[in-house]
Records
---
Amino acid sequence: MVHEILDSPAGLAWLAEHLGPTAIGRDGHPDRAAIARLVFDPPSGAERRAELERWIHPRVRDRIMERLSEARAAGVPRIVLDVPLLLENDAQHGLVGQCDALVFVEAPEDERERRARRERGWPPGELARREAAQMPLADKAQRAHHVIQNHQSMQDLERAVNELLLRLRVR
């Protein structure tokens, strides 16, 4: 949803006005790497990130609530929200109250780093920089109703997810 909103005419205009022309790539789409440098780098990164979040979060929240309503009206039995800042910004969006269960997927730091480098092309240290701007992972795990380990194979992860789904259906 964030990608869709930033890539919209309104999103592109906001990026250009508030983060500058480097936030938009030569292809006319948001340059996510440039945006990350702007909002995670000191000294003004925290201020820029807060400004971006104040603009983007209400739009994302509105879309999430709209899609939740649509899914519930259609009788969808299970809905998964993948919201990176779910706990940090609950006072603004109230999405935690929409959840029957909070699930934290845990992986060791070195594995998260390896995946971020391989799957997202992040340079070394980028993951730590971004995680430092969020609630500590230990706090997120403590607030979760369920913790799934994700440090082995994809089959192991699928097995853990399926076991959790079975437990959740019993309730």
Note: The chain is about 60% helix and 5% strand.
---
Amino acid sequence: MLRTEIALHACCGPCSAAAVPALRAAGCEPVGFFFNPNIQPSLEWLRRLEAFEIYAAQAGLLWQFEPQYLPQRWASVVGSGDRPARCAACFRLRLSATADWALAEGFAEVTTTLLASPYQDREAILRVGREVAGERGLAFREDDYRPAFKEGQATARELGIYRQPYCGCWLSETERYEKRVQEAIARTAGLHRQR
């Protein structure tokens, strides 16, 4: 089967482990691009980069990455607004950078591992992906990698790579643990140190 190269925005190792086999089964050879300034703090960004690097080596996946950690760029674009708007802005930032890279590298088509996560807004990713690809004369591949999500997680477990508990930004982490924080505050309200 003839394989066509495709630019693949990679958010992490586990989602890549879902998307890459699906793309290869469809006759595409993905080339990864890791650009995720949304991931905070820097240690979390490093964990995800290392997990992706381990998966890519195991899968024989060629890849490149933005060699700078740019959370300020993410913050200036996304702000702290409501979830749908800030997520769409985040998708646009990451997919625009990937589409620019894809265009510079000579790819005709682009996609993203974000389409593997059942926790992401698929319709927003598709809308933004079509827009940014179209603005550059690229095609945006819209495959649904979610059916392979559990297999990607299993591959990550087998490889011993990091599997993250939140999308990456500090806002999503705060939202994820808000209930636990509020429970802790309620539980300890009124307690104080006695002398």
Note: The chain has seven helices and five strands.
---
Amino acid sequence: MPVTDQGLDQERYLLVPRTLIFLTRGESILLIKGAPSKRLWANLYNGIGGHVESGEDIQSAAFRELAEETGLTPDTLWMCATITIDTGQNPGVILFVFKGECPIGDPISSDEGLLEWIPISHLSNLPLVEDLPILLEHILPMRSDDPSLSVHYSYDESGRMHESFHR
């Protein structure tokens, strides 16, 4: 199909693609504590990830972000969820969530923040990004052969986030 037949229209709802990656090692998960100077999520724990670059497929973007932000190469990495984030305006965000195992290697922190292997049992004691507790509740028990999750985030008039999960 030629590009002219793709039905591109700036009036349609557009989505900016991003990746979010969770690596586990035994009973621990690798999270990044956002640098204090970050505009978003300063001093909060989050997964690894970032924007998908032009000309890049989603999985390659996930591996690139991991390499850039951690220096690690996981043994396994699979897409376990897609999250559509309705920002109430155009564009929204589509977040491709990956999970993987990384049994060896030490992460290399960057300007993005401090990387830490956190025992999963300690997550409730940490300052996490707003949606991380409910997202990890669904993602952590998943196996590579489980069906992918479809998630929708939206915001109410007061700016409060609402999540809905579907299999």
Note: The chain has a mean pLDDT of 93.
